[in-house]
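Quick question, first post here. What does this chain look like in 3D?
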Amino acid sequence: MEFNLVDDDWLPVVFADGSTGEVSLREALLRAAEVRSLALDSPSQVPPVMRLLLAVVHRALNGPTGEQQWSSWWEAGVFDAAAIDAYLNEHRARFRLFDESAPFMQVGGLEALNGKTKTAALLVPHVASGNNVPLFSAQRDVRPDALTAAQAARWLLHAHAWDTAAIKTGAVGDDQAKAGKTMGNPVGSLGQLGVVMPMGPTLWHSLMCNLLPSTGAAVSDAGDLPVWERPPLTAQWAERMPKGRLDLFTWPARRIRLIPEPDADQPGGAVVRQVLVCGGDRVSLNTGPELRGWMCSEPHSAWKRSANLERKRNFPLVYWPMRHRVERQLWRGLGPLLARAELSTPAAKDAPAVQGPAVLAQLGSRERMSALKGMPLRVLAVGFEYGNQSAVIDEAYGDVLPLPVAVLSAQDDDWRHTVLFAVKATDDAVRALEYLAENLAVASGCRQSEEGLLAGHRERAREAAYAALDTPFRRWLSSLTNNDVDPDQALDLWAHEVRRIIRGRAGELLKAASPAAWHGQETGEGEVMDASLAEIFFHSALRKALRELFDTDGDDPDDNSTDMEPPA
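> Answer (accepted):
Ran it through. Tokens below.
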């Protein structure tokens, strides 16, 4: 049974002409300019696969050492085929998926202390496995569907990136296992992050957008090597700091063994029904310098300063990665993504509360802004929300947002401020609608002390508003800098759109108000809340939220409140 990721097809892609197919690791890199996008089983597979490709490119091309070299690669329009081929040929043996001694990102001959294996469903979060039975899943793990070699390779990478935490099966040879188990395992290498990746019109553009300058003149001298250039993995794991970005991109967060079964009808002559997943390497985060080093090595997440960790670690400047909020669209959290990433170490008193992803900050450099000018850029956001001590996955997050390159500029903040201002004003406008819903509930007889009921009215109004605003905001965002509209005019256009949508939602709430709401209810101390007063408060709050967005010196020329007739 032979399946090698270098030359066997395992990566589903969509080509530039719209056709689909599967390619090998070698073909994905050599034909990257012909591939529109990866078409993997799940959005959460994209980050680990992209980081694998990036690690190969970094090592094969030995760089980029700086922005000048990056620009020369950009002008070439393709990767150096000879260098890619030579590197993959040199390390080809370490990409064998079912090798007996050093299988790719696995431990050859790995055995559990209890002698048991588990079904391959353990690698796939949405498939039933053990006590984890997703709602409406018709499949149980007595004998799940087999994974092909290609599928197994993709889910293998996914497990290292996103596997759940807590107890793992103890492995023979792991001297830290106790009572047949390994305790205290953290989630996979990406599980604590809100992953953010810029994506271009082709796979080549996407990889180039994610290629950051190497941190040293000779990466290998500092020990920053991908897992296939290190000694083969064993059952023994360690808690350690990453040597650098390449080490982190291929972090062996688990000790895994795919157990193949012969199947002559499948590529590689095998399928996978049984696996073994044990504890793996852990990123050491016990001190302030270690936390700082993690942040400096990890380019695909935003970071928030943590006063709590600064006290616990006795270090003046500590940041922790920001996860995505599953209930919120990506554009509503653009602030942290567009924050500057400080790669130096500022004094604690001057340090920002939030730092953006280094990979987005790098795109704002003069060289990359010049190269990317006018190019459609998207940001992919992926993450998981874990539950029950991170031992299960509660929710998955995935979003793709168009983001004009000008918004990332490090030389001119006009468009960045425009976008952030638009998001804040939109939030304020939605808040005005939320309190219209609350005031109408009070006017209908809901007591102000019944916070749970009032919160429900606010939440329903908020969710409906953001659902109505989502597509228009993405359309507005993608149109920025593509025409002759300046930032002030762009804000004016968005303000009109927000006002139209929010007023429409307000009109629906007022139409649905009960007759009692128009008569009103006493709220205490002789005050009365009715639908008419609620509408007046709403329009006042909406004007305040949007007035500075209009390109008319603060005047809102179209601000004619909609008069709602009370029901008979």
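The CA atoms of residues 131 and 310 lie 38 Å apart.
DSSP finds 17 helices and 19 strands in the chain.
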